[in-house]
Amino acid sequence: MNALIPDPQSPIPNYVHIFFLDGVGLGEDNPETNPFATADLPNLNSLLGEKWWVKGNGRISTDRASFVPTDAGLGVPGRPQSATGQAIILSGRNVSQAIGEHYGPKPNPAVTEEVKKGTLFKEVVEAGGKAALITPYPQDFFDAINQGKRLLSSVPLAANSAGIPLMTAEDLINGRAVSPGFTGQAWHDLLGYPDVPILTPHQAGQQIANIAKTYDFSFFEHWPSDRFGHRGPLEDAVSHLELIDAALGGLFEAWDDENGLLIITSDHGNIEDKSHRRHSMNRVPTILIGKEHKKLAKQVHDLSDIAPIVRERLKFN
Questions:
Q1: Over its length of 317 residues, how does the chain's per-residue pLDDT go in tens digits?
Q2: pTM for this one?
Q3: What distance in Å separates the CA atoms of residue 206 and residue 249, rounded to the nearest whole number?
Q4: What does DSSP say about strands 284-289 and 260-265: parallel, antiparallel, or unpaired?
Q5: Cβ-count burial of 79 within 10 angstroms (0-12 exposed, 13-18 middle, 19+ buried)?
Q6: Which of 13, 100, 232, 251 could join 205 in a cystine, given CB atoms 3.0 to 4.6 angstroms apart?
Q7: Domains, the chain, ranges and CATH?
Q8: Beta carbons within 8 Å of 88's beta carbon, 6+ residues apart
């Protein structure tokens, strides 16, 4: 089964999409520890040039894209964590500093309070716009949340706090969402959803681009990249980076540079250093594609700078 959402005939004229990669940093040029050193990444390399992923490299600017090595620590001691990092991206506030630490993976009460103060999701909705988290969740996830057996991570918490319904298997089946693993195969093999369409990674990227055109602000959360940093051999991390690149190839191909701003970023480093199983202190990549990307990229230095450029582009601040 294979289905793609149609390219909308009347897309929103000015929209922003954040393609979020959990746990991806800029590492050493060392093939023994860094999967980027041996991964075949034709789409990212064509966009940014060779060795863009090396720690210590500066900003890159091409006709189509800008790349910014981005500080995920924001002056707070310790290793950056998911709950605070994601909250910073979505709020534009230094949440780690506000609560006195980096915290994760799931929000504690202090992070939850910061998220509920407001994020891009809430701001777009309150301005009368359309916003969505286009990553879907299976019914078992909702059951566990309702039974108090698990917590929402910062991204779905932010969407939920803005009154935005989290997407379900039905949304995935009907082309309104894209699996965090891109293809949907895990929904067949592990989650028991035989009606979910199977996409190639390239098609999944195209699907993300087409869905993004129907919202003022949308967010795709890819969390397996962090898992491949914490677990498994280097070879699996290499294969996973190649999967991400294939999906990005479809996204780049289908992206409307004139009307849409695409932001690719991460909350902390991890997968780029397989010499250990912890988060890294490395800067993370932020990539901007779209009109005025060079101007907007000049404003990005750390994770708290991402929300302000979304606000500037959407003109609701």
A1: 456 776 776 667 899 999 999 999 999 999 999 999 999 999 999 999 999 999 999 999 999 999 999 999 999 999 999 999 999 999 999 999 999 999 999 999 999 999 999 999 999 999 999 999 999 999 999 999 999 999 999 999 999 999 999 999 999 999 999 999 999 999 999 999 999 999 999 999 999 999 999 999 999 999 999 999 999 999 999 999 999 999 999 999 999 999 999 999 999 999 999 999 999 999 999 999 999 999 999 999 999 999 999 999 998 65
A2: 0.96
A3: 8
A4: antiparallel
A5: middle
A6: 251
A7: 17-257+269-277+292-314 (3.40.720)
A8: 74, 94, 95, 96, 267, 303, 304
Joined together, the tokens standing for residue 2 give 């294979």
Rounded-to-integer distance, Cα 284 and Cα 72, Å: 7
Q: Are 72 and 267 in contact (CB under 8 A)?
A: yes
